[in-house]
Design brief:
T-fold; seven-stranded antiparallel beta sheet; three-stranded antiparallel beta sheet; 7 helices; 16 strands
């Protein structure tokens, strides 16, 4: 999933950490657009035909649909053709892995048109999906739930900078989380405390590449289908689940940021943004987590 992983457990049986890492490897094999035999690749190349998938993949698609609706399309996982057109076809971590989609694939197709019956999924012709950040958030949700089911008293699952905390934390029953500085990853902008929930960050400073001397990033504006131009370096959201926190971060990159920060508390979420000039802005309820 293009990042480092850190798993912290409070209690739990011997071997649980290894079990969770194996499950994460399995989810990567299901959802990576860079793997030719992943379920996501098979769905993206199905051209309107049904595909039988794992229950976890069904859950991921439902999370995508929910995020699309809640953000009024600011989070849109169907933009893969535009992302490839912008120059992001090959994995930045493994350049030999290249995304393959049909020639007729198009961006911005209504996710409500996906047909799901049990574990059989039919994408409308032309639709492709990119697990992207929401895949990290949803994977963290699944691993955290699995840790509690297996007997851990608490778990903190961090995947590529997105984290989910559940159960009893190690310090007074809560979890302490640092929010990375966008230009200095070894330092923290903020240190927050959550009893349970998720923290996700989206950044224009990562997943960058150059085309004919022009630097581009992976966060597309659904209105233009081009890398978003907003004056923001990062957006961090605290929400109930990893998948939802990830989806909500994308709304920050549809201007203006002030509207995003005012909107988050109405969604029972909190947020922090950092501008490209280094200014830090927070939602009115961010103070509740300091």
């Amino acid at each position: 999933m293009g990042g480092r992983v850190a798993l912290t457990l409070v209690g739990g049986p011997s071997g649980l950490l290894d079990e969770l890492l194996r499950e994460l490897d399995r989810l990567e094999s299901l959802w990576s657009r860079f793997l030719p035999d992943s379920e996501l690749t098979r769905l993206n190349n199905s051209e309107g035909l049904p595909v039988d998938v794992d229950p976890a993949t069904v859950g991921l698609i439902h999370a995508m649909q929910d995020g699309f609706v809640e953000t009024a399309g600011a989070f849109d996982p169907t933009l893969l053709p535009s992302l490839i057109d912008a120059g992001y076809a090959a994995s930045l971590d493994h350049p030999e892995r290249v995304t393959a989609i049909p020639a007729g694939a198009a961006s911005s197709i209504d996710l409500g048109r996906i047909k799901i019956e049990g574990c059989r999924v039919r994408l409308p012709p032309g639709m492709t999906l990119d697990s992207g950040g929401i895949g990290k958030g949803y994977a963290a949700d699944l691993l955290a739930a699995r840790a509690l089911e297996a007997g851990a008293a608490g778990a903190l699952i961090e995947i590529g900078g997105d984290l989910v905390a559940v159960g009893t934390g190690p310090i007074d029953g809560a979890w302490t989380v640092g929010v990375e500085h966008p230009d200095e990853p070894a330092t923290h902008l903020e240190v927050i405390r959550i009893a349970s929930g998720a923290v996700a960050t989206s950044s224009t400073r990562r997943r960058r590449w150059s085309v004919e001397g022009e630097t581009r990033h992976h966060l597309l504006d659904p209105r233009t289908l081009l890398p978003a131009v907003t004056g923001l370096a990062t957006a961090t959201v605290i929400a109930g689940t990893g998948a939802r926190a990830e989806a909500l971060t994308k709304a920050a990159f549809v201007p203006p940021p002030e509207g995003f920060l005012n909107w988050l508390p109405t969604r029972n979420a909190a947020g922090l943004v950092v501008t490209t000039d280094g200014e830090i802005r927070t939602s009115s309820n961010w103070e509740d987590y300091r």
